[in-house]
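4.2 Preliminary Data

To establish feasibility before requesting continued support, the project team ran the inverse folding procedure on a target of 473 residues. The structure was first converted into the token representation described in Section 3, and no sequence information of any kind was made available to the design step. The complete token record follows.
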């Protein structure tokens, strides 16, 4: 009898230890902030054409908190961080997805200057959230020369690893130092974060772009896909809920209208592998958090996509707005945005995202008023009338947005963080957003985006686009 009792207790103990749901369920919060693009040269005095790095200031007197033609001045960095502290000073953690330096020609920068800017932002964030763990990754502007992040180790990555050591476990720190990526469990929750190094997948990164598929670093730079696929398999066995996080998203930019094939960032081979990775591990990936666009959008991943059959939605990615208001140089319509910050609430046991709340600064108004109060912009569920946030509900939202212009207009307003009026978005623009959201695969995007657009229009657009392709997002 005693032996039987012992055996029963043993079974109970094993169940308790292996069951992931022994974590106490609660609704937690985390911030997702990104693309500060801190312009240390910004000034409101002097030559009006030389008040920020970009030299495209909109006003003859650029405002205290910035300009839509410039990157983020110190006053705006401070206002954004102060707003975070005011709105939620004690989040469970903070995702910080890179692009810390201004859009600056390489000739003005050095590795030391880039590290110093990352250092300054790290200190500011750390001072404001001394007891909160940040999970950061680097952006394509967080390297010198920009975009050219090598595969594996680098001096810059090593220096930044030292700055971020306090936030990362020893294992995650070592992984970041070596490869610019890591995975880490969020303590007290069932959530595990995988911070990806998306920079080696960038088509503007010549370190990998020039490598053939026969080169191991051409096929899978730093073996990151092999690494991520392996970690995802392990995490599925551990019944963890994964948040994929990175700077550059896969798929096509939702605002570039100059060519029917749109504009994308990843090299095609890595875009394809990313989609495959998500499809293969959709069960364990709860949500994805990306950046780089500076705009507010989302992406859907499907399984079993064939021809015109969209398949079943299996994963979603939220693209967070940036702090910088900087107007993209990619093309006229890609435009500027108001500064945005994003608070997410989630279930600590299931990992499910319960709400996505975006706060923003009306930059023009703030400059007029002389004070920068970040205001609540919208809640994802109430704005779009959703009862939950998951791949199916977001696919339904996308489909409803396609046919319902009132709903689409809400999304479009949020896309530039309440800067542009939805009235500027034509039929082609509307279709472009639908195709970007639902077709992450480049070929499928092309087919989708060509559907109702005359080739003449795109031919004219392509001519206009010549010479505009110096990517700087
Ligand atoms: Zn950026
Ligand atoms: Zn970027």
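Position-by-position output of the design step:
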């Amino acid at each position: 009898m005693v032996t039987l009792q012992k055996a029963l207790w043993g079974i109970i103990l094993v169940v308790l230890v292996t069951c992931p749901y022994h974590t106490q369920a609660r609704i937690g919060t985390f911030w997702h902030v990104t693309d500060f693009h801190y312009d240390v040269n910004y000034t409101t005095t002097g030559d009006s054409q030389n008040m920020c790095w970009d030299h495209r200031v909109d006003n003859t007197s650029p405002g205290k908190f910035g300009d839509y033609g410039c990157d983020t001045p110190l006053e705006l960095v401070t206002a954004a961080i102060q707003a975070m502290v005011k709105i939620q000073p004690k989040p469970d953690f903070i995702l910080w997805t890179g692009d810390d330096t201004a859009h600056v020609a390489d000739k003005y920068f050095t590795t030391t200057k880039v590290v110093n800017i990352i250092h300054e932002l790290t200190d500011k964030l750390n001072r404001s959230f001394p007891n909160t763990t940040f999970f950061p990754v680097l952006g394509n502007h967080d390297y010198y020369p920009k975009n050219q992040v090598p595969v594996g180790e680098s001096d810059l990555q090593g220096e930044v690893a030292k700055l971020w050591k306090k936030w990362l476990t020893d294992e995650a720190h070592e992984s970041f130092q070596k490869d610019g990526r890591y995975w880490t469990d969020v303590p007290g929750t069932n959530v595990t974060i995988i911070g990806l190094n998306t920079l080696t997948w960038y088509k503007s990164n010549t370190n990998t772009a020039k490598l053939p598929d026969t080169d191991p670093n051409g096929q899978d730079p730093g073996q990151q896909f092999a690494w991520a696929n392996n970690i995802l398999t392990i995490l599925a066995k551990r019944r963890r809920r994964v948040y994929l996080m990175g700077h550059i998203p896969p798929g096509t930019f939702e605002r570039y209208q100059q060519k029917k094939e749109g504009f994308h960032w990843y090299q095609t081979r890595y875009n394809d592998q990313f989609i495959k990775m998500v499809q293969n591990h959709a069960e364990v990936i709860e949500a994805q958090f990306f950046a780089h666009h500076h705009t507010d959008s989302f992406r859907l991943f499907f399984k079993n996509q064939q021809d015109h059959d969209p398949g079943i939605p299996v994963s979603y990615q939220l693209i967070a707005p940036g702090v910088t208001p900087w107007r993209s140089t990619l093309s006229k319509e890609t435009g500027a945005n108001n500064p945005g910050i994003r608070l997410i609430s989630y279930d600590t046991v299931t990992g499910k995202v319960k709400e996505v709340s975006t706060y923003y600064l009306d930059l023009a108004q703030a400059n007029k008023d002389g004070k920068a109060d970040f205001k609540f912009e919208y809640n994802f569920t109430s704005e779009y009338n959703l009862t939950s946030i998951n791949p199916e509900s977001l696919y339904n939202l996308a489909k409803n947005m396609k046919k319902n212009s009132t709903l689409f207009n809400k999304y479009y307003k949020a896309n530039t963080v309440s800067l542009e009026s939805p009235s500027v978005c034509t039929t082609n623009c509307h279709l472009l957003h639908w195709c970007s959201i639902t077709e992450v695969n480049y070929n499928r995007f092309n087919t989708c985006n060509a559907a109702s657009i005359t080739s003449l229009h795109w031919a004219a657009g392509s001519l206009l686009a010549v010479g505009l392709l110096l990517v700087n997002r």
